[in-house]
Write a structure and sequence with these properties.
alpha/beta, NAD(P)/FAD-dependent oxidoreductase, FAD/NAD-binding_dom, FAD, FAD/NAD-linked_Rdtase_dimer_sf
Amino acid sequence: MPGDLRDGRIVIVGASLAGLRAAETLREEGFSGSLTVVGDEPCPPYDRPPLSKQVLLGKVPAETTGLPMRRDPDADWRLGVRATGLDPLEKRVMLADGKSLPYDRLLIATGTRARPWPNPEEASLDGVFTLRTRDEAGGLAERLAAGPGRVMVIGGGFTGSEIASACRERGLDVTVAERGPAPLVGALGGTLSKLAAVMQRNHGVDLRCGVTVTALRGDGNGRFIGADLSDGSRVDADVCVVALGAVRNVEWLAESGLAAGPRGIACDAGCRAFNMYGIVTDDIFVAGDVSRFPHPLFGYQMLSLEHWGNAVEQAEVAAHNMVNPGPLRRPHLAIPVFWSTQFGLNIKSVGVPTYSDHVVIAQGSLEARRLAMVYGYQGRVTAAVTVDMAKSLDYYRHLIETAAPFPPPLGAADRAIAADVPIPSDVPDPKGLSHGPTVALTGHLPDRRLTVVQPTG
């Protein structure tokens, strides 16, 4: 192996799951040079899925969600300091404390943050929360444990639904407001979102769909007391959780010349970042929630994923490619996998449900609250979602990986799925929803306008 790739200076910006797994993999792959990890939070890397589940239920304290290290990456951890800029010519990362870090190769794994409530004055009311960081989860769990009269959740995506589920499990009254026709519709399509709506209402959630929250109200002393809705109704509540999806942390790259925009940083299948003119870089890599990457199984669409498993797998591919020459580099071709537990249901997804035009129930039924739904696009299987039937997921993963015909053939199904008539998947335009999708098909559209410079002379 060339010695220069195993030596030198590597900087990882982002000290969460992807950053940690990349640092570990670099050492496992034989990197012996200088390794620096930058993170804007003061604490070591921690696990985010428990924050909306066990932490809100009071089962574990937020500070116990630290990620176990597979090995000591022997890194210089720069925690509690943000990256504020990138100079790819000088190969330096600028930091908020005025210092800068030189690098030979850079991995960007800055992830996402919670989308804030758009009115800063209302967002600052005591009792208004977002849920993304460990501190936010700890503060919200403390407020829920105090027994508020009602909790208002804005957004019916996975995070908002899990928060509502935790509230009901704690015996708290909760109202969910979603601009779309049903909760989870942006992630799972129309059919399964109807089941989600039924389950929420059956568990006592005051579910309001097709409405937006127009204002958060305070009591005059800075405390949240309720919300006004677009249908003219008013909800009195003591706690509000804004669950409007995520914002990708790319602002610090605005002057870098990279293809970074609201949907993430574009990279190739080997995790190398593109610049804004579509030219791939050789020394800047991207991994995790902040990335946009092409996938051959989904029409080479650029995917943005907010998935735990994707962050791990992409970080490992990026780290491998950072210390190996071209012929030994690997593509990131993992099939997206996602899971959620809410209202007593275990929901697991494989593939990209939003990349579909039709669905069919392959096993079980909506009435039984136990089923496997298969998604297809232009005659090929592209995704599957199971509800309390996770053991079937590997079978459907194989169908996706092999681009099997849709509707799928007989196999793991407990009845002849060919007899079922596929129905439209009814995936709405995300612009009409409160909640952001956990998988975004970002297509081939550029994120910014480019100036075409004509040669002179």
